[in-house]
Write a structure and sequence with these properties.
Helix content: 10-25%
Shape: globular
Distance between the termini: 27 Å
Radius of gyration: 20 Å
Number of strands: 17
């Protein structure tokens, strides 16, 4: 492995090294044991099994466990490279409202985060026009919020919102890897050039255990705003391995369809 971090409270190593499925790096996980540590830092919020000698033999990472940041970066109006991430919630309002995000250091639904922002920034103000909080609750989106129940009735991207693409900063080339930027090395372990959309989704459910969620914050104007993506477990993960194992992140069938139509990826030979 080339580098990474140890999360002692989870008894987990998060590392990067040469990928087993693609050119370049991949993201790897394994059980962390620090037998020389005089303080027992392996008492974890994750479930653990230990041997008689105190070494951790098994851990279970619950769904939604944060592992690392995706990357630091900036927002712009143009996709750059194959690691850019679009900030967009649209379509079915109920599904969008149930999307997981990090807000106030907790994993919550987008709907709960919007409701919290409304109560903190708008509910107590007299005479706030509905048009204002509709367009300012969520960066780059129009939100129809039931002010009595907190239910998101509709959500759509603003047509003139031009800075909705997160572009990661350059990856470390000097062996320095931080907790905020390891996630960018996660590859999609479900890619198959011959798979249709259904087959891709089935492969992803089986092979990818990671998920990207947005870290959100309320800006000075009372708007829920993205800061950067965070990598979490998308389901409960049982780990027995002390040898690093490559883990995957779903990129999405639309991503691979676009790659085939518009340009090459590190997964596709020239």
């Amino acid at each position: 492995m080339e580098g990474g971090i140890s999360i002692s409270e989870l008894a987990l190593n998060v590392m990067t090294g040469p990928s087993l499925v693609a050119n370049g790096r991949g993201l790897f996980l394994c059980i962390y044991n620090d037998i020389d540590d005089e303080t027992d830092e392996t008492e974890s919020t994750a479930e653990e099994g230990t041997s008689g000698g105190g070494a951790v033999e098994e851990i279970i990472l619950p769904q939604g466990t944060p592992l690392c940041g995706y990357a630091r970066g900036y927002f712009t109006n143009k996709y750059t490279g194959d690691k850019s991430v679009g900030f967009q919630f649209a379509g079915d309002a109920a599904a969008a409202a149930e999307t997981a995000v990090f807000y106030n250091k907790e994993l919550v639904t987008l709907g709960d985060a919007i409701w919290s922002v409304y109560r903190d920034a708008y509910e107590w103000k007299d005479g706030v026009e509905e048009e204002r909080y509709t367009t300012e609750l969520l960066k780059g989106h129009r939100v129809d919020l039931d002010r009595n129940t907190g239910r998101v009735r509709s959500i759509a991207r603003e047509e003139d919102y031009s800075l909705g693409i997160f572009v990661p900063e350059e990856c470390a080339e000097d062996g320095e890897f931080s907790a905020t930027s390891l996630g960018i090395y996660a590859n999609d372990l479900a890619y198959d050039p011959d798979a249709n959309e259904l087959e891709y989704l089935e492969n992803s459910e089986q092979n990818n255990i990671l998920q990207l969620v947005w870290r959100m914050e309320m800006d000075a104007g009372g708007t829920l705003t993205p800061s950067w993506p965070v990598v979490i477990t998308k389901k409960d993960v049982r780990m027995l391995n002390s040898v690093p194992m490559e883990v995957g992140l779903q990129y999405g069938y639309n991503y691979w369809d676009a790659v085939k139509k518009e340009g090459a990826s590190k997964y596709i030979s020239d």
